[in-house]
Amino acid sequence: MRILFAALRLVVAAGVTAAIIAQLALSISLWSEAGVNLGVYIQNFFSFFTIESNVLTVVVCLVGAVLLLARREGADPTWFNNLRAATATYMIVTGVVYNLLLRGIELPQGTTVPWSNEVLHVVGPLWMLLDWLLAPGRKPLEWRRGILGIIAFPLVWVVYTLVRGPLTADPFKGFDYWYPYPFLNPNLSQNGYLSVAFYVILIAVIIGLTAAGVIWASRRKRAVAA
């Protein structure tokens, strides 16, 4: 079981890494043709919650594979157990939010790598869910500390995004602002930041409920698989 999940984690890490690199390479090509500041746009690229969650997925899969191969039994170290739980939560939320709110939004032809998009928004989230439920090493999380630890990063990310948005121009599209997702852009709604607040609260609820589900799964009797 451990060797199987170690191998699967390595495969997923390679696939997600390839998906990130493929999309970044295409984006850099488009930005270079437009003559924009590559440094700013690369920073924009890694400001997407989807990209950050998938980078964490690569880290968790690689470290998790090493841990599975380095020992025959026992639970994961506490720090890795917490990181794995948080990453699973973020990826599940990424999959839910994308498929509910963003999948229907049409993007300019040729700006995304289709297979990469599916890996980052569907394959990765599904894997992290299955990994958390089935892979060996998981151990119980405390309710209060677990939820607070999981929601800390998304809260910091929202503040970072809303502060950075109006300070970052997007000459590629002709705007004097840049936001990673339409529902966080107050310029796209007549209600401005009120609309943004609604979506932030909605996503916070989704993250909280998902975190609760992740913690509940960790507290089941089969928390540490042999």
Tell me the layout of helices and strands.
Layout: H1 2-34, H2 38-45, H3 49-70, H4 78-102, H5 114-134, H6 143-164, H7 193-218
Structure description:
The chain is built from 7 helices and no strands. It has 226 residues and is mostly helical. The longest helix is centred in the N-terminal third of the chain and has 33 residues, at 2-34.
Q: What's this entry about, in short?
A:
With 226 residues, this protein is an all-alpha fold.
N-end to C-end Cα span: 8 Å
Strand and helix order:
HHHHHHH
Count of helical regions: 7
Return the domain count. Answer: 1
Helix content: 55-70%
Secondary structure class reads: mainly alpha
> How many strands?
0
| Low-confidence blocks of residues | none
Roughly what is the average pLDDT, rounded to an integer? 90
Largest sheet: none
- Our estimate of the beta-strand percent is under 5%
What form results from the Cα inertia axes? globular
Radius of gyration: 19 Å
Features:
226 residues, mainly alpha, 0% strand
